[in-house]
Amino acid sequence: MSWLNSVRNALPFVAKKASTEENLWHKCKGCGQMVFVKELEENLSVCPKCDHHERIGPKIRFGQIFDGDYQVLPMPRVPEDPLKFRDSKRYADRIRTARTATGEQDALVNARGTIGGYGAIVGVQDFAFMGGSMGIAVGEAFVRGVENAVADGVPYVIFTAAGGARMQEGILSLMQMPRATVAIAMLHDAGLPYIVVLTDPTTGGVTASYAMLGDVQIAEPGALIGFAGARVIEQTIREKLPEGFQRAEYLLDHGMLDMVVHRRDLPERIAQTIGYLCAKQAA
Fold first, then answer.
1. CATH of domain 55-282
2. Which regions in the chain score pLDDT beneath 50?
3. Nearest CA to 157 among 186, 125, 179?
4. Rg, C-alpha atoms of the chain
5. Cα 210 to the chain's mean position, in Å?
6. How far apart are CA 277 and CA 87, in angstroms?
7. What is the value of pTM for the model shown?
8. Closest C-alpha among 219, 237, 218, 221 to residue 229
9. What is the pLDDT of residue 4?
10. Quick check: helix, strand or coil at residue 163?
11. Rounded CA gap, 148 and 243, in Å?
12. In this structure, is the dihedral angle defined by the CA atoms of residues 146, 147, 148 and 152, taken in order, positive or negative?
């Protein structure tokens, strides 16, 4: 607080300046326009001006995708700092900061509920938690999500959002890629679908493993999806990349996705997909 404001607030005969909540408005990352937060929330965190899909966390996603009540599955207990890693900050401190900021234990949260009347286990990666990075906790949560789906006899649906593997856990984070692949095989052995919804952004080791192994690959409009960054690719191949490269619509046109679905249509489209893939079980 400045000296002038301190004096102003101390004088009883001077009217106090009206305060305004800082979170009344949101600047859209797509068009740069200021959007009323309430209007944005009512529109499922999609910009009403340019249709840009903002990043959302597990609680909001679960509320949007499930029919009603849902049950959040407990997070598995794993070693939190197996390598005692430190860069400019201790890894343990980074985890504590991320937990305080997001209210989540780690970057992948699972929940049980129904979508269009069909039972499902849904996993949501939170990009706000250390960039949604894949470490031991994320890998273990993915496996537990699949195990619960197999036990319940329902599909596993995952919403991916990640910057890749978590560097602070070294090779242990990379080991989660084959672990996830084996878990998906367990799901297939049980005759259950694995549905992937790629959201902005899905990159790195997550894209190189469970994000691209779905029986059905869905993406939100405009989502950034890829392994290496566009700049790295351009420097490697020494060519200019086409417009919209690594965006959901481009990947759909080139056969890497099955569909691009607006956020408001996701519950219905996922329910239709589950109904089609689980027709025999329903019968």
1. 3.90.226.10
2. 19, 283
3. 125
4. 21
5. 13
6. 46
7. 0.89
8. 237
9. 59
10. coil
11. 41
12. positive
